[in-house]
Amino acid sequence: MRYSLLFAIAILFFTACKKDKYTTAPQISFKSFNPAEGSNYNTSAVMILEITDAEGDLGKLSSTEISKAYVRNTLTNKLDSFDFPDLSRISKSNFKADVEIGLKQVMGGRPTTPALPRPYQDTLYFEVYVTDFAKNKSNVILTDKQFIFYTLP
């Protein structure tokens, strides 16, 4: 009897301490940039994120039910939102996927001044979060890898 009580307490302890990977609010983590280093305004730089969601309520169902990704350039404060495509065929509970977000709309560095002759480079970081159909906001992340932005003549 005493051992079964200790066993039950140990099971309860381990299950209570276990972190659930899938939560109601989406969770995101930064994976990489593509191209990994360097770009200019004419190229289409892409950020790759890993997204998990317990309900899988991400994507686009109608004009009112759309989940979005929000990206802010921390150097210029440019902010933009991007609609997810229709994911109804793959969205399911315990959803996990890598998502590519184009950065062309939020790219840019410091304004050009005479004191800053071209070409020059800026180091960019991006703040990102997503929302699902229920308007649950994910964790807000700051990209942990810098993106080098080259301004050419």
Short description:
The chain has one helix at 2-17; strands at residues 27-34, 46-53, 68-73, 79-83, 95-102, 120-124, 126-131, 141-142, 147-151. With 153 residues, it is mainly beta. The protein is elongated, with a radius of gyration of 21 Å.
Write the layout of secondary structure elements.
Layout: H1 2-17, E1 27-34, E2 46-53, E3 68-73, E4 79-83, E5 95-102, E6 120-124, E7 126-131, E8 141-142, E9 147-151
Antiparallel strand pairs: 1-2, 2-5, 3-4, 3-7, 6-9, 7-8
Descriptive overview:
With 153 residues, the chain is mostly beta strands. It has one helix and nine strands; from the N terminus they run αβββββββββ. It has a single domain (21-151), classed as Immunoglobulin-like (Sandwich), CATH 2.60.40. The longest helix has 16 residues, at 2-17.
Q: Could you estimate the helical fraction of the residues in percent?
A: 10-25%
Biggest sheet: strands, sense, closure?
4 strands, antiparallel
Distance between the termini: 80 Å
The name CATH uses for the topology is Immunoglobulin-like
Q: How many separate structural domains?
A: 1
Throw out a few tags for this protein.
153 residues, four-stranded antiparallel beta sheet, Immunoglobulin-like, 35% strand, elongated, three-stranded antiparallel beta sheet, 1 helix, mainly beta
